[in-house]
Amino acid sequence: MLSFKKIALRPGLVQAFSRNYEILLVDFLLLLKIFYLNFFIGVTSSLSMSVCSLAILLAFSIWTCLLTPRSRRTALFVVAGLISTLLWVDLLFYRIYHTVLSIPVLYEAGQVEGVSGSIATLINKGDIVFFIDLLLLAYLFFLRKSNKYSSPIGIVRRIAQAVLVFLICGLILGIRLRSVSQSFDQDAYIGLNWTNTVLEQMGIINYHILDLYQFFNVKDAKADFDGKVGLLKTWMEHHQSLEGTNLKGVAQGKNLIVIQLEAMQGFLINNSINGQEVTPNLNKLLKSSMYFDNYFTQIAEGTTSDAEFMSLNSLYPAAEGSYYILKPLNTYYSLPAALRNSGFTGSYAFHGYKPEFWNRNIMYPSEGFNKFYNENDFQIDEKMGMGLSDESMFRQTLSILEQKKQPFFSFIVTLTAHYPWDGIPDNKKGLNIPQGEFSDMFADYLQAQHYADESLGKFMDNLQQQGILDNSVVVIYGDHFGQYLKDEDIRKFLNSPTPINDDTSLELHKVPLLIHLPGGNYAGVRHISGGEMDLYPTLANLFGLDKGKLFYFGHDLLNIKEGFSAFRVYAPDGSFATDNLLYIANKDGIFEHGAAYDRQTGKQVDIEKARSGYQRALWHLTMSDLILKVNGLPQLLKK
Ligand code: GP9
Ligand code: MN
User: Fold this and answer.
1) Residue environment code for 522-551, b if the CB has 16+ CB neighbours within 10 A, otherwise e
2) Closest CA to 588 of 174, 183, 306, 225
3) Residues with Cβ–ion distance below 5 A, ligand 2
4) What phi-psi label fits residue 589: left (phi over 0), alpha (psi between -120 and 50 degrees) or beta?
5) Higher model confidence: residue 564 or residue 112?
6) Is 304 in the pocket of ligand 1 (CB under 6 A)?
7) Residue among 362, 418, 480, 481 whose CB has most ligand 1 atoms within 8 A, to mutate
8) Which of 138-147, 380-389, 565-574 has the lowest mean pLDDT?
9) Which of 173, 306, 475, 552 would be 314's cystine partner, CB 3.0–4.6 Å?
10) Residues 139-153: pLDDT tens digits?
11) CA–CA separation, 311 and 260 (whole Å)
12) Which residue, among 425, 415, 382, has the nearest Cα to 263 in the 3D structure?
């Protein structure tokens, strides 16, 4: 019988172990750091995660056994240093973006102003854990005297050893890769960036490899898309066949003026603080407009740019990053282009900030705008908050519009009411808010939105005076909620006794949508549930565009029986709202772990009621992403 002693003493095994102890030590320390990172990013360190992480770490490091002892230690030290740095950077990214590093997030990183200046504030003392073991490794590998091997095994055996370990690791990862993608509701690898599935089942190193693969592997996506073109075209025909023709073409021949209001949240409408209306001009205007009071922002990480992207294209925002940054050179058939092709003299965008911000200078031409009037075109005669004041921007925009041949499309994006809302000078603060009634930030938010509303009111009056209003459809909506507003403040403002939970918080993501037609025609409150994805098809109907030439995921809100809005990022993929139902998915990607609510009562209901909507939401998002990934719109629009 072969005793343990005999086995242990067999020189090959002893040497194999002693030669590889460095590899094992480095990989083990890295695994501990992955646990440490997982703790901070809310990822469960499962057994599967540990095995897969160890397998990929071994696969990465086993080749070093082919080197001479000294070079091996150096190589391992470098590998340990690089992976430790990557894990630490993941944590830094998480602190900024609430998601670990990925290619799409990296693309967006350049957009976020002020972040580089505050990197120092993102670093915590505890981060030293990512590097402290390097000291131990340095000592063991380079400083200790007794680093000698008496009888190195031959190169052939070492190669065999490396290949064997590599193959075993590959086998483990391959098997797990397959089973993970099959045992979850959605393809875990397509959902890589928006669920924790891959992080929890395969670990962060494998996540990064899959992220790279997903991003650069357009070939598979193209084949996938080619196989789905027919299906998508049929789906679109069906989608459109469900829409009626109510009010079709009633706006034909009119100008279209779309105003996207920065951070204008729905709860401000028709509400007051100490008897003062926060948005008196919007409140007045909605009486002569179609007012949609159940309209959601559907933004993801691309915030303002997502609101624009959806409103002008009816395609979903990216799961990570912003399509304005990721896909500015795709071929689109956006609202500005479609209007120009149906008799509009031109499409113009206006925004009082840097043209490069959100890549607008590249994206706007792709969307079919003839010209983008930005910071470089306006006279910066009044600065507030981030840049040119709304009042001045509106005034200068009007004088540009006066020169344009009609009918024109103008798309105006406001700026002053941007976070942190503290840029309104005292003499322009129109509300009297006693000190201490709300947090300073919330009081500033109210003042900024009151100011934005006032600027808008002046613009509307001037449009009327210039005779433009009577010949225009004016659309006004908020781009998104005020990020970082505190629940307590909102509750106090709304006089709401109940705490804000998952469903009420999502309900608060509603923004106002007003469509004002000449003479206040068709005015009235419309309760149909909708969101930013729906603006394009709704306007296409009003302006009588041939919908057969468009491809959109949203719905014509004037012509459907029931609304449907899918969400992402601010509620995990698969979450959606209809007129009666709200479903909030779980980040783990398992349908049953989500929650369904009756929107009228706010009570939780049988989850099965949400299954079909959940599948529909996921299908929408997956198809929209696929189309954008392979630049597939032209193929879908070809007859
Ligand atoms: C800047 C502005 C702000 O141009 O549109 O974008 P946001 O930070 O709200 O996404
Ligand atoms: Mn915004």
Assistant:
1) bbeebebbbbbbbbbbbbbbbbbbebeebb
2) 183
3) 262, 303-304, 479
4) left
5) 564
6) yes
7) 418
8) 138-147
9) 552
10) 988 887 665 554 467
11) 9
12) 415
The beta-strand segments (E) located in 426-580 are 472-478, 513-516, 524-526, 530-531, 564-566, 576-578
Q: How confident is the model at residue 189 (pLDDT cuts 50, 70, 90)?
A: low
Domain 229-637 in CATH 3.40.720.10: yes
Cα gap 565→597, rounded to integer Å: 15
Please enumerate in sequence order all residues whose Cβ is within 8 A of that of 623, keeping only pairs 6 or more positions apart, or say none.
228, 232, 553
Ligand number nearest CA of 481 is 2
Q: Mean pLDDT over residues 620-635, rounded?
A: 95
pTM for the structure as a whole: 0.84
- CA distance linking residue 360 with residue 351, whole number of Å: 10
For the Cβ of 303 lying below 6 angstroms from any atom of ligand 1, the answer is yes
Q: Distance (Å, rounded) from C-alpha 296 to C-alpha 163?
A: 55
Helical H runs in 62-113? 69-97, 103-109
Contact between residue 52 and residue 203 where contact means Cβ atoms under 8 Å apart: yes
Interhelix angle 440-465/390-403, rounded to 10 degrees, is 20
Rounded to the nearest whole angstrom, what is the distance from the C-alpha of residue 480 to the centroid of ligand 2?
Answer: 6
User: Is residue 582 within 8 Å of 603, Cβ to Cβ?
Assistant: no
CA dihedral defined by 505, 506, 509, 515, rounded to 10 degrees? -140
Separation of CA 280 and ligand 2 centre (Å)? 21
Distance 529 CA to ligand 1 centre (A): 26
Which residue of 415, 485, 569 sits with most ligand 1 atoms within 8 Å of its CB, as the best mutation to test the pocket? 415
Position 448 scores a pLDDT of 98
| Residue 353 CB–ligand 1 contact under 6 Å | yes
Instruction: State CA 134 to chain mean position distance.
Output: 36
Q: Which atom of ligand 1 is nearest to the CA of 480?
A: 9
Which atom of ligand 1 lies nearest, measured to the CA of 303?
A: 10
Tens digit of each residue's pLDDT (9 = 90 or more) over 234-275: 999 999 999 999 999 999 999 999 999 999 999 999 999 999
Minimum CA distance residue for ligand 1 atom 3: 304
386: Cα separation from own chain's centroid? 22
> With 70 as the cut, is the pLDDT of residue 607 above it?
yes
User: Looking at residue 11, what is its pLDDT?
Assistant: 52
Expressed in angstroms and rounded, the spacing between residue 495 Cα and the centre of ligand 2 is: 26
